Amino acid sequence: MRARRAERVGDDAGFVTAEAAMVLPVLVLVVTTLVWVLLVVLAQIQCVDAARAGARAAARQDPEGSVTRVARDVAPHGAKVTVTRRGDHVHVLVVADPPGLGVLPFQLREEAVAEVEDMTGTRAQRGAGT
Q: Does the structure show a pLDDT above 80 at 101?
């Protein structure tokens, strides 16, 4: 009876190795894809933060060069920052390529809008207080 069990165990030993060899590349592909998706999500969050920071700076009426610098400091590497003013609102658009090989058919883009703050009353009060 023990001889039969030994034969069965010996016969199945090669299948485990073959199954592991087939499954391992799939697991590596799944993990790599999950890491890449995480990097894309993090880059999207950076675009959101950059657009908000730029909109805040533009609403304070900082110089346009300063606004784009603030937004680029927070944005992913190589992002394009566009600042436009429409009436009492400023629009900051941040567009970036997703991380990876650059072969993806989409871009990460985020826009933030802020109302321009009225700084005349604040400046007058500061000047009167000194």
A: no
